Amino acid sequence: MDLGISGKVALIAAASKGIGFATAKLLADEGCKVSICGRAESILRSAAEKISPDCHWQVCDVSNLESIEHWIQAAKSELGEPHILITNTGGPPVGPVMEISDEQWQTGIDSTLLNIVRMVRLVAPSMAESGWGRIVHITSLVAREPNDLLPISSTIRSGIEALTKVQSNALAKHGVTVNTVQPGYTLTDRQTHLCSIRAEQNGTSLEQEIEKQANIIPVGRM
Ligand code: NAD
After folding, report:
1. pTM above the 0.85 mark?
2. How far is the CA of 128 from the CAs of 9, 61, 75, 175, 177, in angstroms?
3. What residues flank ligand 1, with Cβ below 6 Å?
């Protein structure tokens, strides 16, 4: 596939594994100059090697402003001003709504909402100045179908729909688009973790819960 983005600078957050990693690999295969971030240096380094020989990486916790600033500054110095931003992140804390603490809500807000607000604030001005930019927030299908195991994700992700609209209203006239992708069930570490919680709750095995999730999808696989 040629998306016509060869040579563009692409920043992909939380990309040492899962959907972020797959996105970074795809953008590198399209010829983008890619920078990824994640929290664990050894996993991040080995992910960068698999993405492309030139993949830039920087340790960064996306729930921390200084950490985000550091990654974006390092990527700009190495690759130039970003054209594409993918605001992937890890899934927020999970559990029944009546049992979730204020600390867990705050963790979710820092890592799932403020990360997006901050990254866009840091990256969008130079995109707007250049007249071209693409920003994609990876959120979740729970934005449309709230899930009892995922109250924080369901609440924040539906709010991000409104945030995306407001951000795109501000940036569209400068050639910068802002969109969300709401993944369905995808067999990553996060999905395995969620299935293991359901297995414990339901007294079933992990394999049974993975099969149940897959069977919700019309094609019968994640
Ligand atoms: P994953 O757990 O497989 O990978 C998440 C990646 O994010 C890992 O590399 C992890 O190290 C990194 N990460 C986590 N917290 C971070 C932080 N604070 N700072 C920097 N890096 C961090 O998850 P995934 O399945 O690829 O999910 C990615 C996103 O998609 C999540 O936000 C998740 O809620 C959402 N999602 C996933 C599914 C699914 O079925 N897998 C479905 C809907 C939505």
Report:
1. yes
2. 14, 26, 18, 7, 10
3. 14, 16-20, 37-39, 60-63, 88-91, 111, 138, 140-141, 153, 183, 185-186, 188-191
What's the gap in Å between 38 CA and the centre of ligand 1?
10
Q: Render 158-186 in DSSP notation, one character per residue.
A: HHHHHHHHHHHHHHGGGTEEEEEE-----
Residues in contact with 140: Cβ distance below 8 Å, sequence separation at least 6, in sequence order: 91, 150, 153, 154, 157, 182, 183
Q: Are strands 9-12 and 33-38 parallel, antiparallel or unpaired?
A: parallel
Tens digits of residue pLDDT in 159-207: 999 999 999 999 999 999 999 999 999 999 999 999 999 999 999 999 9
Q: How confident is the model at residue 1 (pLDDT cuts 50, 70, 90)?
A: confident
State the closest ligand 1 atom to the C-alpha of 22, by its place in the atom list counted from 1: 26
